[in-house]
Design brief:
Helices cover about 45% and strands about 20% of the residues. The chain has ten helices and nine strands.
Amino acid sequence: MLSTPALRAHLLASRLAGDVATPREASRRSYRAFAARDPRVTLGLEPLDRWDEGELLALMADRCGVSADPALRTGRDAIDPDLTLRALDAFAARLGDAVRRRAPVLFGTGHPHRLLGFYADLADAVSAAGCPVLTPAQGRCVDITTRFGVRPLVLAYVRGVGQVREPGLRGPGVHSHSPLPVRIALEAAAAGGGPLPELVVGDHGWVCGAGQLGIEAIGLADTDDPALFVGEAEGRVSVAVPLDDAVRADSYRPLTGYVLHRSFPPS
C-alpha cells in the first residue's frame, strides 16, 4: 500500500492526475452539451438547477482543478492530485461505512477495459468482509441508443462488476455512458424481492443513474464527465473522484490498495 505522498507521485507519473490526456476541447464540449441537457452527457442525471457552461467550468475548476480560464479552449486538461487524494479518502470512507453495516453493494462500469480490475478487487474485498455483492439482471438485453442507431447489448457481470457487452461474446465489455444498465439491474432486483443495493460503486451512468433514483453512489470521473460532479454538488452523488479514466489498466492498481487500507483500517 502506497503512502499518501507516494500515491500522489504515482498519480502524476501515470497521468491519472496532473496534466492528463483528456483534451481541453473535449471537456469544454461536454460542458456545453450538459448545459443543453444532452442525455449523452447528463448520464441519467436530471439536474435540479440550470447549469450554463460558465457555471460548469467553475464547478469543474473547484472539484477537479481544471483551469477556470474561459478563454482556454485547447491543449490538455489538468486535474489537481490533491483533490483526487481528498476524494479517494471520502470514497474509502463511504465504502468502509457500507462494509461496517454489511450493506448490499452493486458495482458497475462503463470503462471495462480500463477500470474493471479496480472495481473487481474492491468487490472481492467487500464480499470477503460480508457485504452481498449484487448481480441482478445477469444476461438481460440492454438496447442502447447511439448516433448510429440502437445497439443491442447484454448486461453481464465479471468478478461481480456489471458491464455491457456484445451478445454472444466473452471478455471485456464495451464502453458505455448509458444509465440503462443500472436501471435494468435495479428493476430486476426490486422485481425479485431484493435486496436492493445500499451503495452503488462505478462510473458514468451507473453512478448518475443510481443517484438519480435516490441510491447512494460513489465513483470515478474524468474532466469531461461533469454529470458526476453536478450530482455531487446537488447531493445525489456522494463522492466523485477526479482522475483520468482512460490510462493503462494497471495504473489503477495502487489506488485499490490505498482505498482498501482506508476502508478496512487496522483494528
